[in-house]
Amino acid sequence: MASWVLSECGIKPLSRFYPKPTTSFISNPTPTFRFNPSPSSLKPRNGFFPKARNWALNVATPLTTLEPPSEEEHTKRFDPGAPPPFNLADIRAAIPKHCWVKNPWKSMSYVVRDVAIVFGLAAVAAFFNNWLLWPLYWFAQGTMFWALFVLGHDW
């Protein structure tokens, strides 16, 4: 079974390094256990467990060292503690004017829509009541409750 699962996943099972027994315990009342390696297991492997290991780190050291940046280059670098090159008025000016117009009817229509979707998902889940659809329902309902949480949090 395991070899079938591995072959279906595209993975080759590990090669056998012990011989397959030719007799069983039932037919052979005095079993003798001997290790008879197959010729394929005796050849050197270059795979996961090589015969000889090279424990060297193979790290090269630089021949020259880097010079520290000059004072001019240091001033051109990014400073995360410096104030940004824009202010809040610049951000507000970049947003179109129609985005600042408040419309309570449109806002409440989004709340009503989200609550209707929550009740609709619950009705669909109760109607089908299939164990295959429950994870989909949990994900969808969790997303809608998260949307309601965001609306309440921002309110």
Can you offer a commentary on this structure?
- The protein has 155 residues and is mainly α.
- It has a domain of 53 residues.
- It has 6 helices and no strands.
- α5 runs antiparallel to α6.
- The longest helix has 25 residues.
- It is flat.
- The mean pLDDT is 76.
Sequence of secondary-structure elements: HHHHHH
Principal-axes geometry comes out as flat
Task: Look at the structure and give the mean pLDDT.
Answer: 76
Low-confidence region ranges: none
Report the C-alpha radius of gyration, rounded: 35 Å
Q: Please report which band the strand proportion falls in: under 5%, 5-15%, 15-25%, 25-35%, 35-45% or over 45%.
A: under 5%
| Overall number of strands | 0
* Major β-sheet annotation: none
Task: Report, as a whole number of angstroms, the end-to-end distance.
Answer: 57 Å
Category by helix and strand content: mainly alpha
How much helical structure, as a percent, in the residues? 40-55%
Pathway: Lipid metabolism; polyunsaturated fatty acid biosynthesis
Transmembrane segments: 110-128
Protein name: mRNA, clone: RTFL01-09-P13
Domain Fatty acid desaturase N-terminal: 1-123
Q: Secondary-structure map with pairings?
A:
Elements: H1 2-8, H2 39-42, H3 71-76, H4 88-94, H5 104-128, H6 134-154
Helix pairs in contact: 5-6
Short summary:
This protein has about 160 residues and is an all-alpha fold. The chain has six helices and no strands.
Which keywords apply here?
6 helices, mainly alpha, 155 residues
